[in-house]
Amino acid sequence: xxxxxxxxxxxxxxxxxxxxxxxxxxxxxxxxxxxxxxxxxxxxxxxxxxxxxxxxxxxxxxxxxxxxxxxxxxxxxxxxxxxxxxxxxxxxxxxxxxxxxxxxxxxxxxxxxxxxxxxxxxxxxxxxxxxxxxxxxxxxxxxxxxxxxxxxxxxxxxxxxxxxxxxxxxxxxxxxxxxxxxxxxxxxxxxxxxxxxxxxxxxxxxxxxxxxxxxxxxxxxxxxxxxxxxxxxxxxxxxxxxxxxxxxxxxxxxxxxxxxxxxxxxxxxxxxxxxxxxxxxxxxxxxxxxxxxxxxxxxxxxxxxxxxxxxxxxxxxxxxxxxxxxxxxxxxxxxxxxxxxxxxxxxxxxxxxxxxxxxxxxxxxxxxxxxxxxxxxxxxxxxxxxxxxxxxxxxxxxxxxxxxxxxxxxxxxxxxxxxxxxxxxxxxxxxxxxxxxxxxxxxxxxxxxxxxxxxxxxxxxxxxxxxxxxxxxxxxxxxxxxxxxxxxxxxxxxxxxxxxxxxxxxxxxxxxxxxxxxxxxxxxxxxxxxxxxxxxxxxxxxxxxxxxxxxxxxxxxxxxxxxxxxxxxxxxxxxxxxxxxxxxxxxxxxxxxxxxxxxxxxxxxxxxxxxxxxxxxxxxxxxxxxxxxxxxxxxxxxxxxxxxxxxxxxxxxxxxxxxxxxxxxxxxxxxxxxxxxxxxxxxxxxxxxxxxxxxxxxxxxxxxxxxxxxxxxxxxxxxxxxxxxxxxxxxxxxxxxxxxxxxxxxxxxxxxxxxxxxxxxxxxx
Length: 765
What we know:
- By secondary structure, the protein is an alpha/beta fold.
- The protein has 3 domains: about 1-45 and about 270-390, TIM Barrel, CATH 3.20.20; about 55-245, TIM Barrel (Alpha-Beta Barrel); about 410-760, TIM Barrel, CATH 3.20.20.
- Helix 7 runs parallel beside helix 8 (about 215-235).
- The longest helix has 25 residues, at about 740-765.
- It catalyses: 5-methyltetrahydropteroyltri-L-glutamate + L-homocysteine = tetrahydropteroyltri-L-glutamate + L-methionine.
């Protein structure tokens, strides 16, 4: 019985790739240094899977930034602004597309389906001259082969690539991206031919868009694409991989009807209903790559349950045609549980990171082949039972409080217009008030202080003194720049979700449980294993300290319940909304304590609200109902004069704008500039928004410093569709990933642009 892994984490067990990338970007190391780190990581990943007994090992899932950007490079689809003149795409062009450079902005970045991973959105149009411009897929296949590992090269499928793209600037929004299929398929044919010549016997096309709600025209594009590729694919075994949700009956019918395809990869964790489609109709002689090991979470697989599912499938597809697989790429999990030295043994026994999931996949495959490891299965069953019965998982008081939430929609008593009037009397802000999103640059010195405090190398008094000094520096800088509503810069926080999780009960933490979010940016999601509550105030001390340093309003900075949920590894033994309501009650306690401490502006970030939207439209309403309700729970008890902000970033918000309005925040700051001001289109189309709103005026994920004129132009575009009295001026997102040398001039230009517009508006009266 065979085994397969869809994809594997790239960063390395100790984030080796992250540090190599940042060293290269800072010009502290060479391209050769970066390539050597990458090659060592790839080699160790392939060896690990080979040693574990995996038969179908992927290649070309490694990336220096993002796999969709890799496909853009392969197709030579470089936007003209990057000045690429043909030939093999090198690091300069590649990273300019991802991060921008001193003269041009980066391409748009958005969420990869409903995950916290981000991808670089291709910009396409009728005039793009596609060409085979990156041989990475073939090079990595050859590299693995030279190491004695015959891999399955992985490509983003041609139809998913186009469906994940957007019309380039200046191209009609109605332009059919699928009309480009005949232009990109010749390049796919070149890549396939080179892989065949290099000795590949299998190829994997990731076509995850098959799980979306697709009309017949889009489904027909899959049929047309693989019809066209059929002769080129002859002689290869072809796997079409789908993940993250069920397939509709129409999509499943399209998938199993594709010509030249040998095998189908299905997510049977998040797509459990697809099982019924397989049982009712599976093509004879084809392979099923059954994704029974969860690639999105860190809980140990229930091996007995998975084995039972696989035995059912074996009866349908045949013993020789069933391959045990992960539900999706393991990119979305932490790397290796072996590196966790501080988790207690009980919780550790409940978990499986990527390395352990590889072992689980192979153990299930061997069990199906009649070589069941009884000791391994027995230990797994004991861990499953321990988790179900552990008293640390359940808190009856929390469950009772969450159950009592039913029957109320938890809205503030006064409408937003009246609240904004009351808040303005108290805050006395100018028109176009300026603010930032929360974090300021995390310097090496600051990271050292936090690290040494956690390691007990400095005292708590020394730590508090150092953090206070950092807050004072950030406050003084904002006053010097003349920003209207200040933040304390979050120097005490390495990560916005981890920081709160560490102070809430029901959470566990890892030392090296890093997961890639985009580029070199890694997050360390907390693990929610039990009922959630807040034992004591979490941010009041720091917010009060910061407010004491200035007469200007200081924002209290919190992470909202939906974002904490979506950016954590969440328990899978109860519905997600129940866990979210528990977190909402904990944040509500914190909001009310901040208000008592005279913090008059409180930001409750819901950066990940859109991210959690189910991929199926039929499931949207239920999710949005409980997600928006959770946010309202957090602040339903505050006074009218307390201004509640929220923040969202790097997703497409236009389709949920009415739910955003229903959150009933006083002010929302929202990413706008990197997505080419796509957000503003909803207001042009007539959506009325009466609360305060700050569409971002510059992209903080690029080192590029925007000019005053550029920012003023952006603000003018906003003023064309939004009322002057509700518009705020702010960056797209927090500033922690930037350097002060970039932040100071960018914020200076932002404030100057706001003042320029205020003067112009005053003189126009």
